[in-house]
Design goal:
Endonuclease, Chain A, alpha+beta, 5 helices, 135 residues, four-stranded mixed β-sheet, 4 strands
Length: 135
């Protein structure tokens, strides 16, 4: 039996949508994925098109509770949906960072550098939190 990374089985419809979306990433998502997959980003393990509740995160690192969203032009029309998704994810303990397609495509080095800082910060906070609870 395959273990679910977020602790529970996602809704079958959400899972089916995520699987479909994994096969049709945007150009910006492909560009970012090539830079963060396989522990390339400061040793963090990211997955793509990850179901969390009824939402699908573009990229997520479960261990660090970090979600990365790459927003295209269509997101200008779905601001309320994005705000609801962000609020839901934050209630679940995730930190959400958003980049536009243009940022990823035109300045991917800066995007990756910002993400690396976030990953290191989250890892450091997690380590401190773990140390405090061990005392």
């Amino acid at each position: 039996m395959r273990r679910r990374w977020n602790g529970s089985a996602p809704d079958p419809l959400t899972l089916a949508r995520a699987i479909t979306q994994r096969k049709s990433l945007t150009i910006a998502e492909v560009a970012l994925w090539s830079r963060i997959r396989n522990y390339q980003l400061a040793g963090a393990y990211f997955r793509r098109q990850v179901p969390i509740g009824s939402f699908i995160a573009d990229f997520a690192c479960k261990k660090l509770r970090l979600v990365v969203e790459v927003d295209g032009d269509s997101h200008e029309l779905t601001v309320l949906h994005d705000e609801r998704r962000t609020a839901f994810l934050e209630r679940k303990g995730y930190s959400v960072v958003r980049f536009t397609n243009e940022e990823v495509l035109e300045d991917s080095d800066t995007v990756v550098a910002r993400l690396a800082l976030l990953v290191r910060d989250r890892a450091s906070r997690l380590a401190r939190s773990t140390d405090e609870h061990a005392v």
